[in-house]
Design a protein that fits this description.
Order of helices and strands: HEEEEEEHEEEEEEEEEH
Number of helices: 3
Structural class: mainly beta
Largest sheet: 9 strands, mixed
Strand order of the largest sheet: 3-4-2-1-7-8-9-6-5
């Protein structure tokens, strides 16, 4: 049961309403966007809710218990703030979303109907559909640490403490030529590093159409013909020769790698000496 303000309740009781839906999406970087199905822009709480953005929502339903409530939001990519490239780049992954029922004649009369996170997003041409997951979905995710052989820290974070800014673990480079796949390309600037040194590392584009976006390295190969990089996912924009990037070393989370590659066994966050399933054998 949602508590409505006296003004909104009186408006609903009048029988003639001026209501619309408003969606506010806040990305993980803190950038917020507002959209509404009304034919004019609406502003409240410091957010401008853009009209004619192509947003529509499915029926909202709720259930008692810890089951995850979901609904779908779909629409056309008609807003400059919401475009296919940003969706493909993952900028809206797990973004926070708030759904309001608003009196467009007096936006102070509103009620928060749903609060959650964006889930699966599907795209097709200029159309998109995204799943809105209720807060209970966090209860289905692993919480806390898991006793396992491999390390559960992210390379270079406050628990790992490896200085990724050191020349041994990071370098800049440039795309020399494109490969057979949109995910692979020959590069210059990494000739001084051993093969696979940057496999599982993070590549951040510093120029070109993908400037500022990141991708995980699937393979760092080195041969007599040169050095190639292959990413796990295709960049949202086309890669071109001359595009610059910065890449950091990769880690397979194994104790031997932590010792030989990073000399960081004191900060290893796994349990390499716990007996495995074959101990009984």
């Amino acid at each position: 049961m949602r508590a409505l303000s006296a003004g909104l309740q009186d408006h609903l009781n009048s029988g003639a309403t001026t209501l619309c839906w408003c969606w506010r999406i806040t990305r993980n970087d803190g950038t917020a966007f507002g959209f509404t199905d009304h034919d004019r822009d609406i502003a409240f709480d410091g957010t401008l809710f853009e009209a004619a953005s192509g947003f529509t929502g499915s029926e909202i339903s709720g259930a008692v218990g810890l089951n995850v409530d979901t609904l779908d939001v779909e629409g056309a990519l008609q807003s400059d703030k919401l475009n296919e490239a940003d969706l493909a780049a993952g900028l809206f992954d797990n973004a926070r979303i708030e759904i309001y029922r608003v009196n467009w004649a007096d936006p102070a009369m509103r009620v928060l109907m749903r609060y959650g996170n964006l889930g699966e997003v599907s795209r097709g041409g200029s159309h998109f559909r995204c799943e809105v997951r209720g807060l209970a979905h966090a209860l289905q995710q692993p919480q806390g640490r898991i006793v396992q052989y491999g390390c559960d820290a992210d390379l270079g974070d406050t628990r790992c403490k490896v200085a990724l800014g050191a020349a041994a673990y990071s370098s800049g480079g440039t795309v020399a030529s494109l490969g057979a796949s949109p995910r692979s390309f020959a590069v210059s600037g990494l000739g001084g590093y051993a093969a696979n040194w940057f496999t599982r590392g993070l590549l951040t584009w510093t120029s070109g159409a993908n400037d500022g976006r990141t991708g995980e390295v699937k393979l760092h190969a080195k041969a007599s013909s040169g050095v190639t990089i292959e990413l796990w996912q295709r960049p949202s924009e086309a890669v071109a020769p001359g595009d610059g990037f910065h890449v950091t070393a990769g880690c397979d989370k194994q104790f031997g790698t932590c010792r030989a590659k990073f000399s960081n066994t004191a900060n290893f966050r796994g349990f390499p000496h716990v007996p495995g399933n074959d101990f009984m054998l």
